[in-house]
Design goal:
Elements: E1 4-9, H1 12-21, E2 27-31, H2 34-44, E3 48-52, H3 60-68, E4 77-81, E5 97-100, H4 104-122, H5 134-146, E6 152-159, H6 161-168, H7 170-191, E7 197-202, E8 205-210, H8 215-229, H9 236-241, E9 243-247, E10 253-257, E11 260-267, H10 276-291, E12 297-301
Parallel strand pairs: 1-2, 1-3, 3-4, 4-5, 11-12
Antiparallel strand pairs: 6-8, 6-11, 7-8, 9-10
Helix pairs in contact: 1-4, 6-7, 7-8
């Protein structure tokens, strides 16, 4: 799997050293300012952020805001400090490790490796999409319920994914999952940059959280974007035919339509929920209703179950 290292630095000499010493990592992206790097971070989710600024304390608020988003809690941050400047207040600057500028050439490769190893040990993310996994998803939902925060939860599932996987192989199937995760993340974050959430349950199942007024429009955009994207994963002859041939669970050849997306939605104003399992169960029920419809669609529970 490719590894992306994002470097934020205004020092050309530093970036040259990093490029030279981190030759084992093929995908190294450089920005001059943290603010200008946010679009990339939200779209790509790098594996490591190396932050080198003249006064790192000046970026503390931006960095803290980013790390408070559950999507980026797992993103390790390595700070480069100038020996001439006093050390920052570590209670306000959220980084995982630091290195002095004079030690970069000698020690940066080891520090980067340690950041990756530490991240793998303590963070629960899906390795394919880099999205938060089940533990993080449940924690996020329960935390909002405990705070009595109003929100909407969507359960996203791909239809006819297994026949596609059987027809084209796991590599192309992984590409569909990876791109779907990126698509969902882009749509959700474009619609609600702050206080939204996207998670990967596993396989072809995802969840997202938005404010309640935004959820239906967000799901409509997800479906529209997915419908434009998915035909590109099929061979031309299958795309033209509109279906593929694959064996079902009994070993019989069947025709399957293109992958579609089904979404079940639950809003916290339509019921009294105390445990994340109650809410996820309702979204699963709504998703099953959506799957009864041919093609892509969403279904939302609009009936109040409150006493």
């Amino acid at each position: 799997m490719s590894v992306t290292i994002l470097i934020v630095s205004q020092d050309v000499a530093v970036t040259k050293i990093l490029h030279r010493t981190l030759t084992g990592y093929t995908n190294i992206i450089v920005f001059r300012h943290l603010q200008s790097a946010f679009d990339f971070i939200y779209n790509e989710i790098p594996n490591l952020l190396i932050l080198d600024l003249p006064a790192i304390s000046e970026t503390a608020n931006q960095l803290r805001t980013m790390k408070e988003d559950p999507l980026f809690t797992s993103l390790p941050v390595l700070a480069i400090l100038n020996e001439q400047n006093p050390p920052p207040d570590w209670t306000t600057v959220i980084v995982d490790d630091y290195i002095l500028k004079g030690d970069i050439e000698r020690d940066i490769a080891v520090r980067v490796q340690l950041c990756f190893l530490r991240s793998q040990r303590v963070v629960e993310v899906n390795p394919l999409t880099r999205l938060p996994g089940n533990i993080s998803i449940n924690r996020e939902i329960q935390g909002r319920l405990d705070r009595k925060t109003a929100f909407a939860l969507a359960y996203i599932d791909l239809n006819h994914f297994k026949p596609f996987n059987d027809r084209y192989g796991f590599s192309r199937g992984d590409d569909v999952i990876r791109i779907t995760g990126r698509l969902l993340l882009n749509v959700v974050k474009n619609k609600q940059p702050q206080n939204s959430f996207v998670g990967h349950i596993g396989g072809d199942d995802f969840v997202c959280i938005t404010d309640m007024p935004l959820i239906e429009e967000t799901c409509q955009e997800m479906i529209s974007a997915f419908e434009r994207l998915i035909p590109t994963f099929y061979d031309p002859e299958d795309r033209e035919a509109g279906f593929i041939q694959s064996r079902d669970r009994e070993g019989r050849m069947r025709s399957y339509p293109s992958i579609s997306i089904s979404i079940g939605i639950a809003r916290t104003d339509n019921g009294v929920f105390s445990h994340y399992g109650e809410l996820t169960s309702l979204t699963s029920e709504m998703r099953q209703f959506a799957k009864q419809h041919p093609g892509s669609c969403y279904r939302i529970n609009k009936r109040s179950s409150a006493p």
